[in-house]
Amino acid sequence: MFEHIHDPLRTLRQISRYLTDNGVVVITTVDFDSIMARLLKTQWRLMTPPEHLWFWNRESMIRLFYKFNFSVRIENYWLYLPKSYVKQRFISQFKFKPPFLDVLPLDLVPIPSIDVMCCVATKSNLICA
Is the peptide bond before 50 cis (omega within 30 degrees of 0)? Predict the structure, then answer.
């Protein structure tokens, strides 16, 4: 989500203004420093400018939230994507159909979010330097 925002500083400033102390904001964004991003470089599935305007990593997200008096916990999570989407992305990126799709019983494919991060930020009443 956060990689699509034209002015993330302004957006976070507004969120901070409306959120009370100890209020929580949860966002997901691409992890530009993930192993997938570093290995695949320009072929990385999330390297999609102009759709993605910003490319964050864990450190940059922590610094950004810290600027607005948030403490941040960053985690990975599981995505559940339709088989048709996984097949299309896999073929476009790796040039072959993933064989595991045929044996999965459901239409949704569990994928670990190794290149996407979830930021759980809690607003603090402490003033950050």
Answer: yes
CA distance 12 to 69: 11
User: Sign (positive/negative) of CA torsion 91, 96, 98, 99?
Assistant: positive
* Residue pLDDT, tens place only, 3-12: 899 999 999 9
* Tokens 């896999």, located at residue: 90
Q: What are the angstrom distances between the C-alpha of 26 and each of 22, 40, 76?
A: 13, 27, 12
> What is the tens place of the pLDDT at every residue in 63-121?
999 999 999 999 988 889 999 999 998 888 788 888 888 888 889 998 888 889 999 99
Distance CA 90, CA 38 (A): 18
| Burial class of residue 65, CB neighbours in 10 A (0-12, 13-18, 19+) | buried
